[in-house]
Write a structure and sequence with these properties.
alpha+beta, nine-stranded mixed sheet, three-stranded antiparallel sheet
């Protein structure tokens, strides 16, 4: 880490943390290794759990990663597939303690939101920027959403306003972010859902009470329907207008919570939006670098496979940052360089193609020497002179 940090002059004031899971196809879950007394000697590693790939039917492992604001992955972790996200960020903070980073603000989505995690991340002067659930039961978050205030534009179509909920020395700041474009999209999606619900319940008043109750259960099981559907005291199905009014106040909004008093509301909002860097890292790990499929069965080999993919991700991020282009574009351009083998009376030679201006720029930015023009020359042995009679 320190060699890479010195080489790239890494800024680790913001650390983006997130987890994913990778599953094993056509494989059975691993079992705990126990001793003669029934005590667990080694817990199972490949087990079933909540799959972020929607494959709960297959065993998996959980992978976590910490990424800097420029997308450089600085650490990767592996845990058993049944590990809860709530525990992971605390262990990650402990593991990074040995690096003696001067000041770190942890940035994570709402899946890591809990009072215990927030207080743990504040140890030793640390801070956090965490996403908050808009429709959760947190009293402070709900109070922040109800506070009046004026938005101000910080970047493009992003508006923010700040709300401080006083909690003594451990008080939190809330930043409410509003995107007008997303608000229009949320309204359109809601209108489509309401039209679908209205079509489903149009003739429900003619049904018997048992059939209406059955229909209510079927519609409530569909994603998005339950929020806007209600049953009257007489059992009739109606659209919940109060729920619609409540949702209209949340259109295009997302809520952030931070403990850092020095960051402006703009810094908090833009810092959280950079969480897309780690989402891009997971996408590249699973597609470009072929994290899956994993065919290993032993824990140490699975961990080695993940670490190798993480090292490859580190290399392509370094290349992207130094060349100022995406890895896909860099790879496509460099793959146009070929090595040809030519055979003739003078012998055999291997010669690369001429470099394009873009290839020269890439190699210069990466501080990589140009490949030699001729890789191999093989001249035939001269025929021995005939002896004179």
């Amino acid at each position: 880490y320190f060699a890479t940090a010195d080489l790239l002059n890494l800024e680790v004031d913001l650390l983006f943390f997130d987890t994913t899971s990778t599953y094993f196809e056509r494989d059975e879950p691993e079992q705990d290794v126990v001793d003669q007394d029934g005590n667990v000697v080694r817990p199972a590693f490949r087990v079933r759990g909540h799959s972020k790939d929607h494959r709960d039917d297959l065993p998996q492992v959980v992978i976590a990663m910490a990424v800097t604001r420029t997308g450089i992955p600085i650490r990767v972790w592996c845990w058993p597939g049944s590990t809860s996200d709530q525990e992971l960020i605390r262990q990650a903070k402990d593991d990074l303690r040995a690096w003696k980073l001067s000041r770190v603000v942890w940035v994570a989505d709402r899946g890591f939101q809990s009072a215990e995690n927030r207080r743990y991340l504040q140890r030793a002067g640390g801070h956090y920027i965490l996403g908050e659930k808009l429709r959760g039961n947190d009293k402070e978050a709900n109070a922040a959403l109800q506070r009046q205030g004026r938005y101000h534009t910080v970047a493009g179509n992003l508006r923010v306003k700040e709300v401080i909920i006083d909690d003594g020395t451990m008080r939190d700041r809330f930043v409410i972010c509003h995107n007008p474009d997303e608000a229009k999209r949320d309204e359109q999606v809601r209108e489509q859902l309401l039209a679908q619900i209205q079509d489903q319940i149009a003739d429900s008043d003619r049904l018997a009470a048992a059939e209406r109750h059955k229909l209510y259960g079927q519609l409530s099981a569909k994603r998005g329907y339950k929020r806007f559907l209600r049953q009257t005291k007489t059992g009739k199905l109606r659209i919940d207008r109060a729920a619609i009014n409540a949702e209209q106040h949340l259109d295009g909004k997302f809520l952030l919570r931070t403990s850092d008093a020095t960051l402006t509301a703009e810094d908090v909002a833009l810092g959280y939006k950079q969480l897309l860097e780690i989402e891009r890292a997971w996408r590249d790990m699973k597609t470009t670098l072929d994290l899956r499929p994993v065919h290993h069965r032993k824990e140490d080999r699975i961990r080695a496979h993940v670490i190798l993919c993480w090292l490859a991700l580190l290399l392509i991020r370094i290349a992207e940052n130094q060349a100022g282009d995406t890895w896909r574009n860099l790879r496509d351009e460099l793959q146009r360089m070929h090595l040809g083998t030519f055979t003739g009376p003078a012998g055999t030679s291997q010669q690369r193609t001429e470099l394009t201006p873009r290839q020269r720029d890439i190699l210069r930015a990466l501080n990589v020497a140009q490949p030699p023009l001729f890789l191999h020359l093989d001249a035939p042995e001269p025929a021995p002179a005939q002896r004179r009679a």
